[in-house]
Amino acid sequence: MPLSDIVENGLCVGCGLCRSMAALGAVDMVMTPEGRERPIAQQVLDKQMLMRINAVCPGTRIVGPPPAQTNGAALMDTIWGPAERLVLGCAGDSAVRFRGSGGGVLTALGQFMLSSGRVNFILHVAASRSAPMRSEQRLSFDASSVLESAGSRYGPAASLVGIGEILDRGEPFAMIAKPCDVTAVRNLARLDPRIDEHMRYALAFFCGGVSDLTRSEQVLRRFGLHEDELTLFRYRGHGNPGLNRIETRDGRAFELTYCQLWEDEDKWMIPPRCKICPDGIGQVADIAVSDAWLNGGPTIEDEPLNCIVVRTKRGLDLVEAAAEADALAIKRETSFCELSELQSHLLRKRRAVWARLKGMVIAGKPVPAVTDLALEDCALQNSRTDNLSEARGARDRARHGRLSEPPPGRVAAAKPC
Length: 417
Ligand SMILES: Cc1cc2nc3c(=O)[nH]c(=O)nc-3n(C[C@H](O)[C@H](O)[C@H](O)COP(=O)(O)OP(=O)(O)OC[C@H]3O[C@@H](n4cnc5c(N)ncnc54)[C@H](O)[C@@H]3O)c2cc1C
Ligand code: SF4
Ligand code: SF4
Description:
Elements: H1 3-8, H2 17-21, E1 27-31, E2 37-41, H3 47-56, E3 61-63, H4 67-72, E4 75-77, E5 81-83, E6 85-91, H5 94-99, H6 105-115, E7 121-127, E8 135-140, H7 143-148, H8 163-168, E9 173-177, H9 179-189, H10 194-198, E10 199-205, H11 213-222, E11 230-234, E12 244-248, E13 253-256, H12 258-261, H13 272-275, E14 287-291, E15 306-310, H14 313-324, E16 328-333, H15 336-342, H16 344-362, E17 369-371, H17 375-379, H18 384-399, H19 408-412
Parallel strand pairs: 3-17, 7-9, 9-10, 10-14
Antiparallel strand pairs: 1-2, 4-5, 6-15, 6-16, 7-8, 11-12, 12-13, 14-15
Helix pairs in contact: 16-18
């Protein structure tokens, strides 16, 4: 598919990998009027380049863990995938626990990978220093930079722009990112051996979907603010979940609770690709980390805590070494059953996606090629009625254009980001 078709068919999630693959200046990432970062070809991409992009794009190709990993895993669940260990835990350091989104586990692991000499830098994202409501790629070479980047960035974040230059450094690194970003990099590893050579670890967080930047703009409007007044836009962290906090140049501060920020699910404003995401749970990461609100949800401030799904043996070594060095504090073992309670929205999505994709196909829409993610088995846990309703719903939404995105011409008119 040409890039414009990937975008228009609602398959793009804005990772920026296609821009990295194409010649310099051939693909731009732009912020669309909907508040999504999307690629636009600035010149005709030849067939070979398009085939390479289609092979790596996480909108067109989503591959799960290799069967050898799934079959040999210590723990296995149809919905939640393979695991070597499942624990609840948090960062060992109190400042990291506080600043982190949940329990600061990803930040603690990022810092530990650097301090133990396992990697030279962490590829992740952080709030833009010049426009703090926006998120941008960050390479962290020290603990303070990893800590500065702590916290969930719910808006668009093109984590994989410039991956070619990152690999050209020839240094060991780790990535912390959304599951679809990890999928993209694993796809790229099939074409570019430098990924397996230099990327020592891939860590992901569980992900229910990115929100459009326009969702954050709505928050500003609520307080009568303009983006250029901001010095801080923190979605959460500084507690678990912590407050959405906005600070302005003239010293004012505004706060919303997590529930006030996300109160109405219909207004989450997530792109079509997230609604059909077959793997929001980081099955191809070495470690996937989720929220763990043991008191039933984010309605109150909870203890700093994450669920840590250790997917691979490499991830297991890392978690155990980090716990040994007190970078991580393990609270207790957990189970897939508890995970289902803590992450019921992702359980429902895993069960729904197979039927949603069928509905899109019936509507004549292209869908990603998905393999090794047990989608049909997940759907079998649904009743026939539920699957029919998911398929019909997706078919109708696709027919009415609600799983599509505006054409690239309109995107081209948007301000470059
Ligand atoms: C869009 C989005 C959706 C999410 N949905 C869920 C969900 O459905 N269920 C759930 O349990 N948890 C979800 N989370 C994850 C959750 O908010 C926590 O990030 C996770 O539990 C890890 O907590 P932590 O304390 O270890 O993170 P921290 O220690 O604060 O570290 C977070 C790390 O993630 C990186 N990061 C943050 N945002 C992004 C981004 N947009 N793209 C790439 N990297 C990023 C940061 O650079 C940082 O390194 C979501 C997060 C995001 C950003
Ligand atoms: S998902 Fe990533 S690789 Fe695919 S079209 Fe969008 S930005 Fe490009
Ligand atoms: S829901 Fe899936 S596609 Fe959307 S941002 Fe999360 S991992 Fe990526």
